[in-house]
Structure formats: structure tokens, C-alpha cells
Design brief:
Blueprint: H1 2-29, E1 30-34, E2 43-47, H2 50-66, H3 68-73, H4 76-98, H5 104-117, H6 129-132, H7 137-150, H8 154-180, H9 184-194, H10 198-202, H11 210-229, H12 234-251, H13 256-273, H14 281-303, H15 318-325, H16 340-347, H17 352-372, H18 374-389, H19 396-402, H20 411-418, H21 420-447, H22 457-471, H23 480-484, H24 487-507
Antiparallel strand pairs: 1-2
Length: about 500
């Protein structure tokens, strides 16, 4: 069984090392940016000032090396509390200053939730929003009680809730980091780096379920890792994990990627410890998600009193999103969402079977072009991947800028979106992104097979997200959840680098 586990580790390393190497090198030379001045989500590729990024990296490593003893001696608990307080103040101020309203898909989900609450279920028409995207019903159901309490201020209330959820994300990342390593330097460095996770903080105004789903997923992961690490309360920890990850996937169905990674984690932990109880997680999470997913659809069938039936059995087929993800897009960037699936689905009479057949044909055509020309394939996916993974703010500034109120009346906010402040904050985020990607690469490369199976979990989630979005429709905002979980890896990576340097120094 140990040999099988080692094979699992090797497979993870085979995928993780090249992915993180690409992200490290790519972030050194390329930035993908969405200009707030543009209404469309058009990606503009710019060359980074790599000759400034490298000195910034050298200064960063030199400073943490020089201060390693002081960093290690910091009170971890107090540092974590300061981080949470900083996050609370930063995100609350950003909500007030940015004054962002819900728009695009956020607005569509809010509108549908409010309409259904008022007895208008026309959104379930085959050409309606929920008729096309029934997977959004979990998020809509979550929003509806808040409309009863807060009415039209519900979006603002959820921005305030996001403040606490981002604090939860940082707290559970901190707790998971403590489970991954006992090295005080690594833990404290992680907390210090978190102060610079600006894209996560800016996402506080984004009420599309990203923050909700990610906070729930990390909570679930924390409980599952507790179950894998400690035999005490194994069943309770598994049940808690199943509850939170089910809730997470109902809100954001992309979190099924995390569920798969968690199942693989459990299998590996079983092979390592031979604790059969751990395997209960797999059937429980499958049953829990299936039942809750179906329950949401049945609730809405009951709520609309028979006006609409078989909710969830129709809607746009997933193949359409893949077809769009494999299509050229001169207006935005290759594979980006551009409304193609919406228009094409209506054009095809909102017939799921016809749409699926059409999508499969388009996918086959795309695969044929890829097979015929390796150079075309490389350029296509290079543009698509760069646009998603090398955007320093992960679309956070574009989202808030495009949906911000009274931007022109605030000189500071206007400058942040369009002026020198924008250049400054984008430069800071670009440097931090490079440091995080490179540090994560160093952790996987230097740690290699010595990394414990539990510590591989973030690498597995990254691999799953990377492969999924290779084919799925693209947006930079989709990948922030994978970036956020790399901060512990980066801290441990630089710790390993310094440790290896110290060992070599002591040998001479």
C-alpha cells in the first residue's frame, strides 16, 4: 500500500511541477490585464518589467533570510489576529469606498431570486436565466431569505457577509498551514504573505458565490484533514466535512473539483494508515451532494406549483461551455465566455439534445485543428491560460470598476481604476503573484516525495482546476481560488530554500 501511495505522489508531482514552473516563468514575463475603461472583458497582454521583478524577489528572499530568526520568534497567534483585524478593516473600507452594485451574472442570480420570491417563475422558461443555468439555483435559494429581510439592500448585506467569509478563508488557511507544518518560520511567513493577498480582499464586493463557496470548501478541507491526521472524532470530522463541502458545491458547482481532490486525499490517507473509517467520506459526500442537489430542484418545482416540471433536467448542456472554451475569441481572449452559448442555445430552439449534438461537432472541429497544427495548439492554449492565470488582480478591479457607483466623484477611486494608483497596485500584485508562484514551485520541487500525502492536497486541487479550465470557458476570476491556496506552499517553499542554503553553508 505504501508503494501505491508513492505512485500517487509521483503522479501529482509529474503534473504539479510543470504547471507551477509555467506559472512562475509566465508571471515573470507576462501580465494579462483587463482595462476598467473597456466595457468588454478584453484581455490585454503586457510584458512585465522582469528586470524589476527579479530584484524584488532577491530583496524579498534576502530580507526574510536576514530576519528569519525574528520571523520565527513572532507570536503566531497574535500575528494571525492582526491579519484578521487588518482584513476586516481593509475589506469593510473597500465596500464603502468602491460602492459596487451587482451586475452581469451576479445581477441575473439576484434578479431571479427576487422574482421567484415574488411568485414570478418565468426565469424557468427555456430561454430564461434559470431555464438555461439551473445549476445557479443553489445560490439563488441561499439569497432568497435575505431578500425577505433586507429587500433591495441584499447585495450590500452579502458584501458585508463576505468580509467575515474572507476572514474565515484566512483563518482556515492558517489552521491548515499549521497542520501541514510545525515550522514556525513557515507559518509566520504565510501570515505575513497573506497581508499582500490583495485580490482576495478586493473580491469582497463580488457577490457571485466565489467567496461563499471557497470559505465553505476550506472549512470542509480543514475538518477532513483533521480526520486524516487524528483518530479522535474521525466520524464527526468527516460528517462536518461532508456538510460544508456539499454546501460549497451547491453554491459553486466548480467546487466539485475540490470534492474529487478530497476523495483522492482520503484514498491516499487510507493506504497510509489503513483506517477504514476514512473511506466513509466518499459515499457520504456522493449521497449528500446528490440528494441536496435534487432537493433544490424539487423545492422549486413545489414552489412554482406545477408551472414547471423536471427542473434541472433541461438547460444548456455542459458540452456547449466546452465548445466555447475551445473556440477562438478575437474580441476577448481564446476560450473566454462571450455570450456565445446563450445566443447559440436560443438559435437552436433551446433544445438540450440538439445543442449537445451541435457542441460535440464544434468540439470535434476544434480538436481536429489542434491535431493538425501543434503550433496553433500551443498559441491557442498559451493565450487562454495566460489570460486566466497571469492576471495579477484576477479580474477583481475590472469587476468592481465596471459595476462601481459614482467613480468619477471620488478622485482616489478614479485614480485607482485609471491612473497612477492603478499602475502602483497592479505592480504590487504582479510582484506578489510572481513570488507566490515561484515559492509554490520551490516547495513542490525541493520537497518532492518527502512532502506528506496530506500536504499534496492543494497541489491536487490546483491540477484539477488547471486541467478543468484548460477546456472549460475561461475567465480570470475563476482561477483566484487556486491562487489563494498557494500561499501556504509559497511560505514553505521559501523556508525549504533557506534551510537548504543553511545546510550547505554549515557543510563548508
Amino acid at each position: 500500500m505504501k508503494q501505491t501511495l508513492n505512485i500517487f505522489k509521483i503522479i501529482v508531482l509529474i503534473f504539479a511541477i510543470p504547471i507551477l514552473l509555467y506559472l512562475s516563468i509566465g508571471s515573470l514575463f507576462i501580465n494579462a490585464r483587463l482595462e476598467v475603461s473597456q466595457v468588454s472583458e478584453k484581455t490585454v497582454f503586457v510584458h512585465t518589467l522582469w528586470f524589476l521583478l527579479l530584484p524584488a524577489l532577491i530583496i524579498f528572499v534576502a530580507v526574510i533570510y536576514k530576519l528569519k530568526d525574528k520571523i520565527s520568534s513572532l507570536n503566531t497567534g497574535k500575528l494571525a489576529k492582526i491579519l484578521i483585524a487588518y482584513t476586516y478593516v481593509f475589506t469593510t473600507c473597500w465596500i464603502i469606498i468602491a460602492n459596487v452594485h451587482e451586475g452581469s451574472d451576479q445581477g441575473q442570480v439576484f434578479k431571479a431570486a427576487q422574482q421567484m420570491l415574488n411568485g414570478d417563475f418565468s426565469t424557468f422558461n427555456v430561454d430564461g436565466y434559470m431555464g438555461m443555468y439551473p445549476f445557479q439555483l443553489g445560490l439563488a435559494l441561499l439569497y432568497q431569505p435575505f431578500f425577505l429581510l433586507f429587500g433591495n439592500t441584499t447585495a450590500f448585506v452579502w458584501q458585508l457577509i463576505n468580509v467575515f467569509l474572507i476572514c474565515f478563508i484566512q483563518f482556515f488557511l492558517y489552521k491548515i498551514t499549521c497542520m501541514m507544518t510545525e515550522d514556525r518560520f513557515s507559518i509566520n511567513l504565510f501570515l505575513i504573505l497573506e497581508f499582500l493577498d490583495i485580490p482576495l480582499l478586493l473580491f469582497v464586493s463580488f457577490v457571485y458565490g466565489t467567496i461563499i463557496g471557497h470559505s465553505l470548501a476550506l472549512t470542509a478541507l480543514f475538518f477532513l484533514m483533521k480526520a486524516c491526521k487524528n483518530e479522535d472524532h474521525t466520524i464527526l470530522n468527516i460528517l462536518a466535512s461532508v456538510f460544508f463541502i456539499t454546501f460549497s458545491a451547491l453554491v459553486r458547482n466548480n467546487n466539485l473539483i475540490i470534492i474529487i481532490a478530497m476523495c483522492i486525499l482520503v484514498i491516499g490517507c487510507f493506504l497510509d494508515s489503513k483506517r477504514g473509517k476514512l473511506l466513509l467520506f466518499i459515499p457520504l459526500v456522493v449521497i449528500s451532494f446528490s440528494i441536496s442537489h435534487k432537493a433544490v430542484f424539487e423545492y422549486y418545482e413545489w414552489a412554482c406549483q406545477g408551472q414547471y416540471t423536471n427542473i434541472g433536467s433541461y438547460g444548456q448542456p455542459t458540452a456547449l461551455a466546452v465548445a466555447m472554451g475551445l473556440s477562438e475569441n478575437d474580441e476577448l481572449a481564446n476560450g473566454w465566455f462571450n455570450g456565445y452559448t446563450w445566443d447559440k442555445y436560443i438559435e437552436l430552439g433551446c433544445d438540450p439534445k440538439v445543442a449537445e449534438e451541435f457542441a460535440i461537432e464544434r468540439i470535434s472541429e476544434s480538436l481536429g485543428r489542434f491535431a493538425a497544427s501543434p503550433s496553433y495548439t500551443f498559441s491557442f492554449f498559451a493565450e487562454k491560460l495566460n489570460s486566466m492565470w497571469l492576471n495579477p488582480d484576477f479580474q477583481s478591479l475590472w469587476n468592481s470598476g465596471r459595476h462601481g457607483n459614482y467613480i468619477g466623484e471620488s478622485p482616489v477611486i478614479y485614480n485607482l481604476y485609471y491612473g497612477e494608483l492603478n499602475i502602483l497596485i497592479e505592480s504590487i500584485m504582479s510582484i506578489v503573484m510572481f513570488i507566490i508562484y515561484l515559492g509554490s514551485f520551490l516547495y513542490i520541487l525541493l520537497g518532492n516525495k518527502k512532502i506528506s500525502w496530506q500536504n499534496m492536497i492543494f497541489a491536487m486541487i490546483l491540477i484539477g482546476g488547471f486541467l478543468f479550465h484548460l477546456f472549460w470557458e475561461a475567465k480570470a476570476q475563476y482561477t483566484i481560488v487556486y491562487y489563494v491556496i498557494l500561499f501556504p506552499y509559497a511560505a514553505m517553499g521559501y523556508s525549504l530554500l533557506i534551510s537548504k542554503h543553511d545546510k550547505r553553508q554549515s557543510q563548508h
